[in-house]
Amino acid sequence: MEEGFRDLFQATVDALNNMGLTVYEAKTYLTLLQKHPSHGHEISRRSGVPGPKIYETLSRMVQKGLVAVLNTDPQMYSPLPYREFLTRKSNEFQVTERLLAANLEKISLPAAVDITLWQLTNHDVLIAKARDLIDGAKKAVLTSMWPPQGRLLEKSLAAARQRGVAIVSIQFEQEVIEVGKVFRHVQVDTVYDRHSGELTMVVDESVGLFMSRPPDREWNGFWTTNPGVVKLMTNYIRHDIYSNKLIYRFEKAVKEEFGEQLQELLNLEVD
What we know:
Number of domains: 2
Largest sheet: 7 strands, mixed
Low-confidence stretches: none
Distance between the termini: 75 Å
Helix content: 40-55%
Oligomer: single chain
Radius of gyration: 28 Å
């Protein structure tokens, strides 16, 4: 078996294992798909399933309807066509999902006080969660973002806008995602130093998400339905928009007073 095919074979075994087959069943099924009908000894040799285990494995698979027995001498086996297998598994999953959803709804009770804050530590996971929140938005999405995150969320934001969801954003750098009402953040070096790559988002004033990548560290962030935290995030984005509107409106006077990089505005030290 060539290395590339060996990797493909093992990845498919792992996927089938995740779908409920044992490793031996997965190897047997894939081996039969490659060559069928086959007898037990040949399947064992080609799949790597030990001889003492192959007939036990085949017997279970016959009972599950994954393998058919042919009335031959020696006895031969043939696999369920893979499209039928996938259809069956899909139907089983849908039934299980409906049952699980109904049972979980009956079992779950709301928290007495909402303190939910889920910490996430992977960029792709954070972006996927942001998309999920946007896709579920009913009224409004308020966000502060940079172009890399904006490009990854653009399709979800556009789809939400098409559904009638209000999209309001403050965006960094000149390149912006033109969806909904867009405000540009003033371009100063301190913005890059302090906030580069950050994404802050509030959906329907009920759930918030934040992600960032501090220097020399991995991406991290969180999403939350805690009312106090969501209110804090909402106020942060809104006041950033208010401040930047004022800076753009009175840019010359602001820079004369606080410097080209607004360094004096950002100096919070007390004399």
